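User: Teach me something about this protein's shape.
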Amino acid sequence: MSFPRSVRSSVIAIWCLSAFSLSAAELIRDSVLQAEIILPEKANPVERYAADELVFHLKMITGFDFPLKTRPTPGKHCIRIGRAARPAVEIREPNAGMVRISKDHIDLAGCDDPGRDPLKFETSAGTLFAVYDFLNRELGVRWLWPGEDGIVLKRQTTLSFAPAERRTGVPLRFVQWRQAGVHRTNWTDPRNADRFLRETAVWLRRHRFGMSCNLNYGHAFTKYWEKYGKSKPEIFNLLPDGRRHADPFYFNGRPSLISMCVSNPKLHRIILEKNRRKGILNLNENDTAGKCVCAECLKWDGDPDGSRVQKAADAFRAGDPVWYKKLGSVSNRYAEFIAAVRKLAEKDVIIAGIYANYTDPPTNRIPLDPNVILRYCPPLMYPWTREKIDHAKRVWLGWSNTGAALMFRPNFTLDGHNFPLDYHQEFVEVFDFARLHGMAAVDLDSLTGAFGANALTLYTIAAKCGEGFEKSGEEIENEFFRAFGAGEGSIRRYFQLAAQTAAAGSRVIGKSNAVEGSAIFASFFMVAEKIFTPHRMQEMETMLVQAEKAVRNDPLSARRVQFLKTAFEDCKLTLAVQHAYEKYRTDGEVKSLKKQLVRLKNHRAKHERTNGTNIGYMKQMETRFWPWNLLSVEDDAVRLSPWFVALDVRDRDFDSCRWLPYRTDTHLEKQPAGKDWINSGSRFTSPVWYRTEFTLPPEETKNGISLQFGAVDGSGEYFINGRLIHRRPYPYQGDADSWKKDFAFNVPSSFLRTGKNILMVKLTKQAGLSGIWRTVYRGRPVREKVPMTRNLLKDGSCSEKVGTVWKKDVREGSFSFENRPDADAASGKTIRIKCVETDPNTRRSLGRIYQSFAIEPGKYAFRIRFRTEPGFTGKVIVFLRTGGKGLSESNRNLVSIGTDGEWKELSGDFSPRNRTGTVYINLQNGTGTLVIDEVQIYRIDDPDQDAAK
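Assistant: First, the predicted structure itself:
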């Protein structure tokens, strides 16, 4: 396999036109369609999809449905797709194609992989890319973001094209943008997650992301310790303690992160035998620094200063997790490593990395060649600074001067979360420098899908990787802003403010030791308020409002402005959640944080079909910090605090061990107790114990409680007052993601005491992070939903017209009642009670539905599932009346405030005095809509046992 020094694909060139007539190819003349699209008899998936894309765009441009046929109609102009074009020159290079326009035919064809999904990066799609080239260059089509509103084109009533012929393709042989996961369960409708994923894949292909050859190689030696640790320990790093093993200070000594002894010839021979695939050798070091201190590796470094090894050894013994930095740059040894393997494999393409302490260019002037492709992950994560940019250029140029080709492999597109963190100008500067100095491939990590918030940056990146490879940043900017019609000026100013905000952020975001340049991408939403201040948010919102006014008579531009505005509202709500979260961390008050979480969730649910953001990914990142599980916690639940942890428990001697303070907002290894334990050289090889206490009044002791855990990482045993109550292994029921999911279990009265109770958790986990890392609450017992067949109420599913089974009653205010289908309801139908206005005299309201029911002596449970629509200002109050006066075990009141659109359940127990009862469901003292899904009353004691007594 040859990988030429020239990084520009050889397929982009203009062909001679002398053989063709100079008269135009007319597809539409005098408002009459003159053309049809011709496919081969047995079209492959790429050809079929290419034709569909062409038909779709031509209809948007002209309003005509171009017919698809396999045989041309005499007298019609033909657009011939794929093999139907019968190209004079057979095209063999993957993803290469041709556009040929003559008086009678337009041919769009290329090298395709038959039988493969055209949306997969690894599928050769020359015909599809020829169609996109035609749409780009002949018709001016651009794709700002996924979905129809992101397609920029000019409506035309006539279509004619001058003769032309050119080869088409992609600018680089490997251009990949990894998509972040959509996490379907985080969407209101998982089908929207699938839709988002597909439309994003379509957008990427329209920008010509693809692989002429697959260079998608990761870390090469992650399983080597498992295979060769005992038989060939000499191929692994020698650490300062004189042993060959994984660094104990790096992810607790995970074997897959061990570095290699790259100077060892045995390793080179194993690589040739095990790491070769289709003429490509993978030399990518594991995801760690170079750490070997053996004599041969040190000799390859070429540094006579022996003191660096002693300094590294001292730091290692002191427990410094970055002890290896004392070794300085080890790039020379990795250049020697590549050259040594090249001598054994002269014709293979070699994939290797530039990373960690072997990032700086080598000084030993080892000559490499263009068939060595070096993956470079530059330190360009936010905040972007001139220092970082200049450093990235210096490193790139230094390695390029060895003669190797380079893969641009940054992580910067992870930055920003759902905020308009604009950095398109910085990207263009670094990308163009790399393009002009040996860039052979691009591998971007990752596309998080914040299209509404970061539209300009994401479009710029996509365009530069495809048809805008050689365009200036200004050209791409102008393409983007022109799409907003009369709102262009305001939108331009909006993104200027976003760029200024991002630049100013470098002064408030601290430096990071992360190799990539920053570690805040995972928690950016928690520090965003330092950058996106209220004043700046107001300025940016003003620009969006101005743009909205400017385009009010232009529906398409208005929808594009709304696309940005919806994303901006998501940012505002995110800031509100973070503000409430900080307050919650101080006082533990649940209601205000739940309210903000519900507002954000409802906003995203309302707009999750717009392609504005990858809702699943955003929530997945937020769940690492925010307690989204609070939405399932009752407002009156009590947070358990303080917690303590013991790491040295032996034989359950809890009195003699050390109990250290512990927070339930992050993992053990990230807290002082865990860090001190690791730095002392210890490992969590034995169970770790966690402890807290809580006090119960007699009523809660009698009824029992539930314990609600936000998330627990590890296999756990749970004890109440010394008695085992619950076991939950990891992974739970085979779910590898169970470490980040909330769960609850009930504690019956037999385990509890009036007064002080002790909860202890025994956790074990052998690798990675561990601990109780989300808040724990105690609340009312969690009751499993019982079948509606046990329901004492008639029409508990709320499917009958109000006034039949459920009676209606209005005491104060103006109300309406109706039964309506509801796809979100468990039963498919709901009863809606709406208060239009309160009583003008008392300013109060009370409207309700009710029904009576027959009942026997015993103990019963009540349950209602309901929600209130946004804007609800009243209260939801349930009266259970089963005998006697006043509130008692037979007469209960259950109360809730509005849920802001979120489904909620209220439940309670009661013991009737009479054989007839009545339930009242009230909307009281406010306006808005109450939506009722299911109502149940069912027996929870054992009537046969009662009879026996």
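Now, about its shape. The two ends are 87 Å apart (CA to CA). Residues 1-22, 944-949 have pLDDT under 50 and may be disordered. If you'd like, I can walk through any region in more detail.
User: That's plenty for now, thanks!
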